[in-house]
Amino acid sequence: MFRTVERTEAGVRLLDQRKLPAEAVYVTCASADEVAEAIRLMIVRGAPAIGVTAAFGVALAASQASGLPPSALDAAIVRARDALAAARPTAVNLFWALTRMEGAARNARAEGAGNTELALLLEREAQAIHDEDLAACRAIGRHAAPLVPAKATVLTHCNAGGLATAGYVTALGVIRGAVDAGKAIRVFAGETRPFLQGARLTAWELMDDGIETVLIADGAAGSLMHGGKVDLVVVGADRIAANGDVANKIGTYSLAVLAKENGIPFYVAAPTSTIDRKAATGADIPIEERDPAEVTELRGLRIAPEGVSALNPAFDVTPARYVAAIVTERGIARAPYAASLAALVPPS
Amino acid sequence: MFRTVERTEAGVRLLDQRKLPAEAVYVTCASADEVAEAIRLMIVRGAPAIGVTAAFGVALAASQASGLPPSALDAAIVRARDALAAARPTAVNLFWALTRMEGAARNARAEGAGNTELALLLEREAQAIHDEDLAACRAIGRHAAPLVPAKATVLTHCNAGGLATAGYVTALGVIRGAVDAGKAIRVFAGETRPFLQGARLTAWELMDDGIETVLIADGAAGSLMHGGKVDLVVVGADRIAANGDVANKIGTYSLAVLAKENGIPFYVAAPTSTIDRKAATGADIPIEERDPAEVTELRGLRIAPEGVSALNPAFDVTPARYVAAIVTERGIARAPYAASLAALVPPS
């Protein structure tokens, strides 16, 4: 069994997801800056997983600075937070985890904690974020059970599986939960250009679990839906606005529109840490633009003419009206989402 | 300027489109069987281009057999036709061109043509199909002029350009015609997985023409439309049913649905040889399933786990209700298509 992210003595150890499925290689980040760079480079990716990873990064920085004067330790935490927050802009779980780590540090200092105690507490907080993520993913699988028929073909996009989380699953949790419940499930995995998370990661995880998986080009999803070959669509999320608009991997919006047009339910599975109550609608969610070379090249192989322009938005926003339900660890939200999401995540 | 297909002394010379844009390599097919294999391998692709190529293949077979007894020449033509017809199932232009070549041979024999005369006549007929295709493509560009605003961003898919035809354009003809008319045109080219005709061919052709081109992953098209960044969608076609349903490269149906949902006109540009009056609806159009390795590998580079299943339908069918207009060399057809297409291509 792979470990997406874990805290080791040497630092934060990550499964290098860029190299999957060809090789399962682990890299260890020895500083918070290295953790931030790993998030930027997508060595680790997936909204919940980068939240957990960032939390470990803060803990690492605190532990490494615990021999310094208290003000230097506090400054190291702020520097780590800033570096990690700048790594990727769209997934809100990253900011959620950083805010939680910062709050824990502030409370500890307010209660008179010394450096050693603070560092230990941050390590525990990061591990708690990790463990809660795992528990949340399992709960998502349970809550989703009534949504999946006894025999179903599920279309998914990108990777909202164990690799995107502390080690279990969000969108794939819905699938895995259904399989565990004895349902006959087949999965169409969209390859998810440009980064190929579907081809490389989802296919690898599902095959590892013995779940029937059929890989497709992203462009094939629509005609499969139109041909009656898809019973439901399940995706993860990188950020969910207060009104239920969902930011997720580029291509998700297209699937949602195609599902609606063909009368197929479109579900989003994500922990409540993905819900950003400060974003009123999807228009408030920043969309990361990544290097055009991810489109024009594939692992160094040039697939487009030299000098061509390319646009590489990493995410898109699916308006809430296309979303049949949002499955979280606290239960299922349905339209109207302003009310149902507020019930799951009360205003703080 | 490239030459997609031409008849040379040595056989039928094709630009090897699999190697673009890295290299512009020509291959010569020395027999009709080699021509059929080149079509199957997608050395040449694009509905009009494979029609022209198949016609040259028949002419080649006839010329090579012209020293044999008349019955042997006639048998060689039948063999060539069968081999070429089996190369790819979806594009009707292939069958249209073969039927036309066969009809020319039959008529010539009925009028008492000897072998030399018949072979010469078939060479001329193939060349006429080539030249008419070129003229048709230019006419499509002219007819489409009123559809393109003075300043527009056009989304296209796959390659319906000079490489897909005898050397000019169908969908790209709409774009080229607009640019030639002094309009300010920008093109979003969908990369078109799995074969990457958009990234490799369309981008290359448009850049060669100095037309502003931005390459995108197929999954990005929807959110660009939703964001108001696309004024019209133009694609080619591999076969158009009598009711206006359009078979075209996989992913086309998705674009059509997304265009409708966002109030963007979706146009199809194709010569009338693409209209198959024998197919009442899209359900009568056979859809080619290609090697799953096109999805799981990219030029020999493995991008998915060993042993994963993949589905690789080469085409999909877009129902006529999503199509704002079909632009042919004889004029523009609009809904109801049963009537408008019948007016352009009277029942024979």
Proportion in helices of chain A: 40-55%
Strand order of the largest sheet of chain A: 6-5-4-7-10-16-17
Largest interface: A-B, 58 and 58 residues
Q: What is the average per-residue confidence, as pLDDT of chain A, rounded to a whole number?
A: 94
How many individual β-strands of chain A? 17
Task: Report the portion of residues of chain A in β strands.
Answer: 15-25%
What is the radius of gyration of chain A computed over CA atoms, rounded to a whole number of angstroms?
A: 20 Å
Oligomeric category? homodimer
Residue runs with pLDDT of under 50 for 5 or more positions of chain A: none
How many helices of chain A? Answer: 11
Largest sheet of chain A: 7 strands, mixed
The SSE order of chain A reads EEEHHHHHEHEHEHEEEHEEHEEEEEEH
